[in-house]
Amino acid sequence: MCVQHQLQLLLFLAVLSLTKSYSVVVIGGGWAGYSASSTLASSSGADVEVTILEASPRNSGGGLAGGWRTASGRPVEAGIHGFWREYQNTFRVMRDEIGLDLDDVLSDFTPSVLFSKNGRVATAPVLATSARKGRKSSKSSNPILSSIYGSLPPPLDTALLADFDEKRLNLQDRISAVGLLSGWADFGQEDPDSWGRYDKISAAEFFLDYGGVTPNLYAELVSPMLHVLPMGPGSDISAAAALSCFHVFALQTRGAFDVRWAKGSLSDLIFDPWRVKLEEKGVRVEGGKRVNGIERAEDGDGMVVTAEDGSEYTADAVILAVGGTSAAKLKEGSKALKEAEGAKRVEDLRGVTCVATRIWLEPAPSPTTGLGGGAYSSTTLPKAVARAMGESPIAVVGAGVLLPELEETGFCIYDLQRMHAEQHMAEDTACLEVDMYRADGIADMSDDEIVELALRAVSSALKIDPLQVNVVDRAIVRARNAVSHFNIGSAAASPGIKWGRNVYACGDYIDRQGHASWSTEKAVVTGKQAAERVAKDLGLKGVKARVIPAAPDTPQLSNLRRLAKSIRRVSGAQRLPVPVPWTIGKWIRKGVRP
Ligand SMILES: Cc1cc2nc3c(=O)[nH]c(=O)nc-3n(C[C@H](O)[C@H](O)[C@H](O)COP(=O)(O)OP(=O)(O)OC[C@H]3O[C@@H](n4cnc5c(N)ncnc54)[C@H](O)[C@@H]3O)c2cc1C
């Protein structure tokens, strides 16, 4: 071979090595899987092939947040999904990666009304400045509080501006909430020691025994919130999860509790256009591919992923974006996952069962108008329901409303005619959604029984007469063990982003130290972090997670944290939360030294 040919060959080999192409298989097509894929597909070297394998045949995008249409063409989802004010990374994905105008797909910030089994407890105020109209939409029945609202630090703004029902919570109950400040300040959102300490006790024990809230405040306010946010009773949710969840969803910044809701199904508004964008970037999205095998390739370099239909994929890296309980199932049959050091306690993760019930009703003879809070101000739901939900189309209800079926089940009621454009336009039906959380027993009922229970739950929660309605259509989604359960000890079992060589994971159950976020936002953030880690390990160019950090502590919280640190130092308490002074008697009686 002449020198010239040798040089050409060398050049060819050099170019070949520079453009070495990698393949990554992402298992699961929800927020986490799509975020990871979108981040990887931004590789400036275009040196990576990304394939998403999603189990659901009808829904190749969206995961728990996705949806489909019934035989009669009506949209169905596994529950309605809200976007809290601090979902900064999710909002950026919608804007920059999918190219959406947020005001086209999401409602303005919307208040919600909280009910306990005894009736209405409070209306959460909207404290944010309206995104669209540039106005403050805060409301308080107290004009003095309203006028000083701008100077109230969080979380006092939410606490003082919420419109509480005096019959449910008296002044003593509300003052007892001050005790929670010590735990909130003591619990470091990103501190493994804090997580370790508070992961060992239940939320109920923390709030009642250490935080010193009155039993009434716990029953009327704290417990209903636990039933719908981390979706469980305080006795079965860890104190760490409760503190982290309340911080993220309610306490961290002004208006953190404000929520925007999609104006229609997330599949139509978000995941369909997102899938198109991903495919334009070369990502392959394959529905109907339930993965049942993840093993190392025989040469030990890379992975082989198999789906139930027998198809096989080789990959340089695999990202599991399937949710914790599904990951545990995959591990059962996978030698590679069993050997992955980072996945060693995945089988200890648990799931919460949700039942989402959408009921289309014959409309009331005339609409009820002038209703507050929603994207639309009228509804043809029965008058009694419309009036009971006059402040907001969203009612958040704690457990125990009807016995025995709802003993441990919290739920949300949505008037979809006031939230979704498509339902608002439908003249022949009104539409009610009842999403029930921790609903294992209910998931086993027939569709008819669930609809009947949901309607009874609505009338019982809203304290109105039993509903006499004609059901035109219904759709029931049973999401069994599908939502991450943050029980006592769950933080200790949560894996990180990297499980082992070539194996990564993302989702809302991933180790919660590192970015104080929950649910959708957590799935998006960990999706991006997993993609960045894969890119780093494979040497892909230009892949940047660009995760927006969680909001920094407010000056008030920073001061409280300093105080909490001093108390912990002086008291010598190491293992457990420091109790507030008015619970000390209880501790002495118990003979326990925290
Ligand atoms: C009723 C309900 C209401 C909710 N409300 C809110 C809300 O208001 N706001 C909010 O932020 N969050 C909410 N959530 C939580 C939110 O839906 C989740 O945090 C989010 O969907 C997590 O996204 P993910 O991508 O990690 O997992 P998932 O959405 O669970 O997606 C995982 C995907 O993996 C697929 N999969 C599983 N196993 C396999 C396999 N073996 N092979 C291939 N694919 C597989 C599944 O089909 C699924 O599509 C709610 C959840 C429910 C159920």
TrEMBL record:
<feature type="domain" description="Amine oxidase">
    <location>
        <begin position="32"/>
        <end position="534"/>
    </location>
</feature>
<protein>
    <recommendedName>
        <fullName>Amine oxidase domain-containing protein</fullName>
    </recommendedName>
</protein>
<dbReference type="InterPro" id="IPR050464">
    <property type="entry name" value="Zeta_carotene_desat/Oxidored"/>
</dbReference>
<feature type="signal peptide">
    <location>
        <begin position="1"/>
        <end position="21"/>
    </location>
</feature>
<dbReference type="Pfam" id="PF01593">
    <property type="entry name" value="Amino_oxidase"/>
</dbReference>
<dbReference type="InterPro" id="IPR036188">
    <property type="entry name" value="FAD/NAD-bd_sf"/>
</dbReference>
<dbReference type="InterPro" id="IPR002937">
    <property type="entry name" value="Amino_oxidase"/>
</dbReference>
<dbReference type="GO" id="GO:0016491">
    <property type="term" value="F:oxidoreductase activity"/>
</dbReference>
<keyword id="KW-0732">Signal</keyword>
